[in-house]
Amino acid sequence: MSKYIDRVLKDVQQKNANEPEFLQAVEEVLSTLAPVVDAHPEYEAEAILERIVEPERTIIFRVPWVDDKGVVRVNRGYRVQFNSAIGPYKGGLRFDPTVNLSVLKFLGFEQIFKNSLTTLPMGGGKGGSDFNPKQSPHTPGQRCSDREVMRFCQSFMTELFRHIGPNTDVPAGDMNVGGREIGYLFGQYKRLRNEWSGVLTGKALSYGGSLIRPEATGYGAVYFAENMLATKKDNFKGKLCAVSGSGNVASFAAQKLIALGAKVITLSDRSGSIYVEKGLSQKDLEAVMQLKNVARGELSEIAAKIKGAKFFAKARPWQLADKLDCAFPCACQNELDGKDAAYLLKHGCKVVTEGANMPSTPDAVAAFVKAKILYAPGKASNAGGVATSGLEMSQNSEHLSWTAEDVDSKLRGIMKAIHDNAAAAAAKYGHAGNYVMGANIAGFTKVADAMLAQGVC
Q: Is 70 exceeded by the pLDDT of residue 1?
């Protein structure tokens, strides 16, 4: 590692000592940049690394709201506007008890490079709240009602609206923020600003949303993996694939994998994992989507209804199969550790494609890179969602609505461009086949050069 990178890392660790997720993300990126930093001394002269690891703006605010019993509740809201060198801040909103400043800074930092890789003009940001829509504040075991979620979203947007806009910051959905929440947030923004604009993405089709947006992250991860397999003159036909998660990303990744001839043998959520030796069917996936998106239930409630499924309570899906070819971690950060990686490699896994943000721990990443399998880091392989959000922004600005075929074609093209750019950057700096190095370098250089062009700001 270069002395410059080492110095910056030590400074970041000192300033952000209580933010482990953010520190992990920064180290993961900066530790791969030595070849490009050494080749471009102007980056050190203009303190590019020092500036890129510091958010341009961090907004923290209270969110008071009233539950169905008339009790006043208070949550904490955030928006981390990390970097706008190549476009307006762009990144999702996450509502979950695990949300804190460290998590959102890690996600916002990753978003800088992910958005850069899409080839679209979008900067990096992230936001959310520790609000939990899955747990009623007054009735244990029940979820918040639609009215409670609406009142929370309206209060959240009443503060956030002053910091966002179609040319400033364009949030989207993320964990526990789907079509329902985006609708409530958009309605309140429109009410406060007295204008209709493309300020949020992930909207319903009836008011400016894009076809393929719900499917985009999962589809995009599969398209990226398809491009990696193509370098080995291979495809998904007959491949055994373990997928984690069961929300939009996991479900649509599984849907696309099955359509391409693969067998999806696992899904998971916080209640545990299901394992289906002969593979899930499209009908099984439809039932899972109904459970997760409409009933908002858990896999434990449906496992018995899926033919051949075994349910493992509180288990992750990585060590359930005796043989598998591909793994798609699509749930959350740090869900796949070094022991899981060792098991996957021992049992035949040759492709790991991240649908979630930083789902593999550092020791797992090191194991995959050392084994020289086809390993795609999330900032490259899960960029399909934000890429399609960018396409939604374009449609909104032009007051147009593209067909599903048009959007899917553009998504395929973007994912191929991300793959090819990452592969080319890795080869250019002497690390051919290392998609971690390639994605980090390709994403970083575009932003760094834009920052150089704009002076010290």
A: no
